[in-house]
Amino acid sequence: MALRKVTLDLPENIYIRLQHAARATRQTFDQIVLKAVQQGSPPDWNDIPAEFQADAAALERMDDKSLWSIARARQAQSDFDRYQELLDKNRNETISDPERNELNKLRVESDRFMIRKAHAAALLRWRGHRMPPAEAL
After folding, report:
1. Coil vs helix vs strand at 53
2. Which residue among 18, 21, 65, 82 is least crowded, i.e. fewest CB within 10 A of its CB?
């Protein structure tokens, strides 16, 4: 990993807090600052499976209202029920080839839905919004 040198002016109180954290954890000041930057930076969509990265990247350009809409979205109950039905058939080895294709399609759609929802929530948190409990979303 290539490193870049950065000069940064920190408010005194943050500098002291980071110094204390470095001493308390027996880490260097640079390690503590790097950790703070990593934890405080926007979520990395490169950790998302390649087939969903474009969706996650597009979310970063959305306004907060649009992100809230995605974060609060609910999957259609009928899709969830059908997915469960097909999973049961697959588990019992009674699934047909067309049903297996449908199951794969529903899995991808479900994964895309959940990744978009989670990424939207992560972006909102990073932008300073308080998130309600998961069951409220």
Report:
1. helix
2. 65
Q: What does the pLDDT look like over 45-63, one tens digit per residue?
A: 778 899 999 999 999 999 9
Query: Which two structure tokens, joined as six digits, stand for 99?
Result: 């049903």
Q: Judge whether 52 and 113 are in contact, CB under 8 Å.
A: no
What the block records as the tokens of 55 is 């969706």
Phi-psi region of 92 (alpha: psi -120 to 50; beta: other; left: phi over 0): alpha
Q: What secondary structure letter does DSSP report for 88?
A: H
Contacts from 3-7 at CB under 8 Å and sequence distance 24+? Answer: none
Euclidean distance between CA atoms 69 and 18, whole angstroms: 36
DSSP H/E element including 95: none
pLDDT digits (tens, 9 = 90+) for 75-129: 999 999 999 999 999 999 999 999 999 999 999 999 999 999 999 998 998 888 9
